[in-house]
Each structure stands twice: as C-alpha cells, then as structure tokens.
Amino acid sequence: MTALRALALTCSLKKSPAPSSAELIGRELLTALTDHDVKYDGDRDVVRVVDHDIRFGVSTDEGDGDEWPQLRQRMLDADILILTTPIWMGQPASVCKLVLERLDAELSEKDGDGRPLVYGKVALVGVVGNEDGAHHVCAELFQALNDVGFTVPAAGASYWVGEAMGSVDYNDAGPKPDTTGTTTKTAAANAAHLARLLRDHRYPAT
Q: Phi/psi at 26 (nearest 5 deg)?
C-alpha cells in the first residue's frame, strides 16, 4: 500500500536561513510521523511560507506570479498537513492568517462526488511562543482547518510557550520538556492512524 505523506507549512515571520522555532516544531512533528510509516521529502516538505511570494486573497490563484498554487498542489498531494505558527500578541502570526485566508478557497473546490478536495486529509498544528496563548491559537487554527474540510485528530497539536515576558525561544531552550515531546509523539500517532482510516474509508458523498 502507498505510504502516507506529510507536508509542513511553517508560518514564521523570518525568512530562511534564520533560525525558526516554528520550523523546528514542524520538523519534530514530521520526524515523529516517520515512526508511523509516514513519509516526507526532507527539506522540500518543510516549507517556510514567507520564503515564497504568496499573495493576499481568497482564491486558489491570485495571478501575477502568485506562488500559492504550487504550495496548494503539494498540500493536495499530501495526506497530512502540519501548520505551525509562532504566537504574536496572543494571535497566530500574520503569515499563518494569510495561509488560512488562501485555504478559504477550498470551500468551493469539490471532487466528482461533491466533497471538498481536502476531505479525507488530516491537519496537525504546532505552536510556539514566549507568552501564554497556545490554546487560543490552536483553537483558531482547528476551527479554520476544519471549516474547509480537514479532519483534526484527538490531541491534534503540540506546543511550547516559555516564561511570560521571557526572551528564550523554543529553538534556544536546550533540552525540551517531556510534556512537549510526549505531546508531539501522541499528535503524530493519532494523525497517522486517522489518515489511514480516512484513506481507506472516505467520507460519504454529498
């Protein structure tokens, strides 16, 4: 049987090659997924969105050099989408909100049986920041991803937040707490399990 595939869209505000905690947690989720026979294509499937010319809008292609269509096709080719973001002012990063706005177009993109094209795909969320707010950010992303057709598994997020008013980033935090590592493994296991179920037993036609 064909292996499941995963893609991570990282919504850091920093362009490559600057260190990114949001990218790090995305890579950790991808690594955890490989323990469950989910494949990804190395650095190619760890996409830092800000490195690409993604236009504002709510269509599948905003034209004039918009690079979202290429990323969208890679998303459609994957079984599991990982969306990671830092927390800024208690909110998902602006880059993440841009991605959610572009995903809005999926509401009108249907297969031959009337199902949104992302039905049957699983979404995971990764959140990092130096202030509380991870649950709020996860909730915003879960709702948006589910609205357009992704399925979110039980325990479908992993997050890390540092000390309030602190200055240590996740990628500089040294040994990671067992809680984050365990949560990452659980999220990956549940996502792989759910993705296999949905691949073998599709949602009913509408």
A: -65, -45
Q: Which of 19, 96, 88 is nearest to 54 (CA)?
A: 96
* DSSP-based three-state secondary structure for 54: coil
| 10-residue mean pLDDT series, the chain (206 residues) | 92 97 97 97 96 98 97 98 96 98 97 94 96 93 97 96 78 72 95 97 89
- Ordered domains of the chain (ranges, CATH): 4-167+177-200 (3.40.50.360)
Q: How far apart are alpha carbons 50 and 27 in whole angstroms?
A: 17
Note the pTM of the prediction, 2 decimals. 0.94
Closest CA to 128 of 98, 86, 165: 86
CA within 13 Å, CB half, 115: 12
Q: How far is Cα 45 from Cα 9, in angstroms, rounded to an integer?
A: 8
